[in-house]
Amino acid sequence: MITNQVLLLLMLSILWPTTALPFAPGNIGNLFGMPESDGKILQRSKRGWMWNQFFLLEEYTGNDHQYVGKLHSNMDKGDGNVKYILTGDGAGTLFLIDEKSGDIHATKRLDREEKAMYTLNAKVLDRNTNAELEPDTEFNIKIHDINDNAPKFAKEIYFASVPEMSEVGTSVVTVTATDADDQTYGNSAKLVYSILQGQPYFSVDSENGTIKTALPGMDREVKENYQVVIQAKDMAGQMGGLSGTTTVSITLSDVNDSPPRFANHSFRVTAVESTVIGAAIGRIKADDPDVGRNAEMEYTIVGGHDIFNIITDQITQEGVIIIKKPLDYETKRDYEFRVEVKNTYLDARFIHGLQFKDYATVKVTVEDVDEPPIFTRNPYIIEVHEDTAAGSFVGVVSARDPDADNKPVKYSIDRHTDLERLFNIDSVNGTITTLKALDRETSKWHNISVVATEINNPRQTTRVPVFIKVLDVNDNAPEFAMSYDTFVCENVKAGQLIQTISAVDTDEPLVGHKFVFSISPTNPNFTIDDREDNTANILTRRGGFSRREMSMYLLPVVISDNDYPIQSSTSTLIVRVCACDSRGNMQSCNPEVLPFSDGLTTGALVAILLCVIILLMIVVLFAALRRQRKKEPLIISKEDVRDNVVSYNDEGGGEEDTQAFDIGTLRNPEVMDANKLRRDIIPEMLFPFRRTSPIKDNTDVRDFINGRLQENDSDPTAPPYDSLATYAYEGTGSLAESLSSLESAATEGDQEYDYLSNWGPQFKKLAEMYIGKSPGRET
What we know:
The protein is mainly β. It is about 10% helix and about 30% strand. Strands 35, 37, 40, 41 and 42 form a five-stranded mixed sheet that branches.
């Protein structure tokens, strides 16, 4: 078998019958390793000693290295002195060259879709001297394409929609596949589209992949979704070509081709007469097989209605019947009207021959209920003057029972709206009166709620707001609008303006405020000029003010209004005397100080003296508080005479000490066990308890409590609610007997306190104090 390489050598031998070929590489290799000739006689590059381009098939599947071509120089005599070197794209890794023979091999499979051409450089060197025998020449290795890539769609599943009832040939969607093979070489990337699933409803354009409708009258209400499988095949669809598929999910979108229809053309609704205005009493619904905007409906009452109205629920597309006016069972009990339903959006293509509306009859029955009272007005607005005395008439509210029985009604004020209890109402006739005097300056309006309740059925109540406007009476005098900081310069001249004043009045006369300002005409220092616009100017009557003579002037200003009765007040304007510059700007308002011989002014001496007195008082008060700090006695009585009580802070046994002290002993002294021993300490000796017979039944404590109880019951200032009073009462008897020396027959010096040391550690401090004071123990 003659290989392509041998055939190529034979052809070259005929063209150049020489022992050594004048060109290489590419003159030896497989068929695709030939130099590119484009139909011309093979010629080498004028500037190089080799061919500048080689061809190589992609996707080589052999185990050995793929042969690419051969480099050969005329300087190579075959004696092994020539060395070939390869550099550039993939040289040494992807492409290897035999330094002696010039053979080029590819080390792995090449893929044109990864890289279509490689650029390399070839050198010829003398093996002994490394001198260049040929110039550095660049050449390309071009990868030839084979059909090794199947067409691929961008998506595995496409979603598209087309209106129902579309004409045949309506475009739905275009799906396009791509082929990674060379588009310019052969038919490897030429695609043809076909439909594998979805006929007879849809077809596909074989060239561009456009899916179109193929069946007329497709109805969404019959079938909405379709699955179409499209195939793309390369090699122009010929046998052996590769193919890829994708799925297109096509949905028929809705058009308004179906009118709304009532399934039942008669509806019956029941409503109670107490239904509030705007409330819904029932719903009706028509059916429309369309969806979305095409299924939107509008309900109307044919000819309208005075009592009822119908609106459309945009979510459920139901007709909601609502109340426009109150229902009254006693007036009318049955109503009937017609309702029309129609689509809000119409498609002109389908309205011919169809009526896109329908009608139904609605009957409403009113049921009787026990209704609450009804006020004649809602709300009430009443005016009353602020000088109205307590108990005066304000206004009247009226309510009635709308039922046929006309049951009696009582009135009351919701005290949550009248916390200050300013008003009262007659429960029978609804007359409102004042309980306290009203003040417009405190509150201009009073908003209360009056409740009307059926006497026979207290659950039936009605509220009505009553707005009481307090009318103004001129009962407040005007006063300064603000606090003025007024000064007069020492070098001021007579008739100079020093302050402009204004006034305010909390009253609101109908004709507006008109204030009159005046001062005493005999004032030698200042005068006033009423500007008759509710302001006035304060002027100086003279010049030559001095801070030494008078540092401050008090100027009484009388302000009067013009309402009836006339109200006036006197406001005092404080005018300070200050030092000013030539332009009248204030520099200092402190009074000049006349120095004493010792250098201290009178003001400084007074200030120092006051400070010393205050400090002394603080020191004395602090010392007195320290000495007198003690607890207030529980019972203050003239007969309450006690010895000094010495406190000490010995700690007891805590909560777990259940035997150190028994509170039950104080409550029931008779049950005390005389021989009961404590378990928390070891007693030094056993001794009997000395006690006196307690008073039977604790009569003294009972009498004390009963006396305090009678005092609280008869106290007119006691609060109206239950309260707890706590008292401390020692009683008349004690198991420890009296410890006071006032009731002892012997003197303190004759008293023996040795027994205190036997009472345990709790009385250790007390024993040390009294035993240490005994005369017999003093040294």
